[in-house]
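User: I'll paste a sequence; please echo it back and then give the predicted structure.

Assistant: Echoing your sequence first, then the prediction.
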Amino acid sequence: MMSARRGFDQYSGSSHYRLHGQQVLVYQVVVVVVVEVVVVVVVVVVVVVVVVVVVVVVVVEVVVVVVVVVVVVVVVVD
């Protein structure tokens, strides 16, 4: 009877460890997924910021060129 009890305890302990291992694996998967999502969000934000900066720079250059052309035309016409 004692050996059966010991065997049951060992089995339940083994089952507990297996369950604990699966929980650790689930936590690792969750951590990896969260890290990947954070990395993707950061990359998307950086790309959006770079695109906005490039658009602003291009608009400013176009405005400067238009102002210079208008000033040159006004000066030459006068």
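The CA atoms of residues 16 and 48 lie 48 Å apart. Confidence is low (pLDDT under 50) at residues 5-9.
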